[in-house]
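Structure ticket #2291
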Amino acid sequence: MKKIEAIIRKTKFEEVKDALYDAGIEFFSFWDVRGVGQAREGRVYRGIIYDTSTIERTKLSIIVRDKNVEKSVKAILGAAKTGEIGDGKIFIIPIEESYRIRTGEKGDESLYIKGKED
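Resolution: structure written out below.
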């Protein structure tokens, strides 16, 4: 099992969500986050300079079976890419174990509903 963490543009969230659903990933968690990136600039609005070095993004956290990692990453890459600086990052982290609290199932079986494998 792997944990996929992706930091994407807030404006791309719906597209990424739809792409993940099309790839068979129906559950993930997400948060609105702020970060500091490489682009450091100030924007002037009505004579006031605003610092835009902190960037609003959405962070996704997805736990998948090993066989679903590649298609999940491809879905995120395809939907989140604009080609501009600040498109985001994807991180893959190994997961040692998982448990479904309701049933006590563990491992891969805790990640999907029986009869709906993939």
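Closing remark: The beta strands are 2-9, 29-36, 42-45, 48-51, 54-64, 88-94.
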